[in-house]
Design brief:
The chain folds into 2 domains: 5-93, Uncharacterised protein YqeY/AIM41, N-terminal domain (Hypothetical Protein Yqey, Chain: A, domain1, Orthogonal Bundle); 102-151, Arc Repressor Mutant, subunit A (Orthogonal Bundle), CATH 1.10.10. Helix 3 packs antiparallel against helix 4 (79-93). By secondary structure, it is mainly α. It has helices at 5-18, 22-42, 52-75, 79-93, 102-116, 124-135, 141-151. Pfam families: YqeY (PF09424). This is GatB/YqeY domain-containing protein.
Length: 154
């Protein structure tokens, strides 16, 4: 990554404000507010600014909660609110690293199993630890869990 996420947020906010794009501006302000909250929450542990991987996790959480809201709005027949949430998801996901496709995920899982030496489902934690260390930013670990389980014969 050429520039860090914080500077990308600032640049995108300036661009959105100049373009008078109210929806994008609002979403970017939400992201920066959440980032400030995350930084403040980390202060007691001596961290003044959270690292990139924690920012990525924060963005993933924001996108996930909005996806859940979209489902609820659709169930309630509130299409305009669902559309607003989907627009926010698009802005949030534009800052996330590209996710691995299924073939790359399977290859990473095979590699992690070999590296950890896991042979049974009881050693799934070792495999997940390797995946988390190497691929946390580009792999959805929630979807990886069942794949690891299947690969270990569980």
């Amino acid at each position: 990554m050429a520039e860090d996420l914080r500077s990308r947020f600032t640049a995108a906010l300036k661009t959105a404000m100049l373009a008078r794009d109210a929806a994008t501006t609002s979403t970017l302000r939400m992201i920066t507010a959440k980032l400030k909250d995350t930084d403040i929450a980390a202060r007691p542990s001596g961290v003044t600014a959270v690292p990139e991987e924690q920012i990525v996790a924060m963005l993933r959480g924001m996108a996930k909660s909005r996806r859940e809201s979209v489902e609820l709005y659709r169930q309630g027949g509130r299409e305009e609110l669902a559309a607003k949430e989907e627009a926010e998801i698009a802005v949030i996901e534009s800052f996330l690293p590209q996710q691995m496709d299924a073939a790359a995920a399977e290859a990473a899982i095979r590699e992690a199993i070999a590296e950890s030496g896991a042979t049974s489902i009881k050693e799934m934690g070792k495999v997940m630890a390797v995946l988390r260390a190497k691929h946390a930013a580009t792999m959805d670990l929630g979807k990886a869990g069942p794949m690891v389980k299947a690969a270990l014969g569980g």
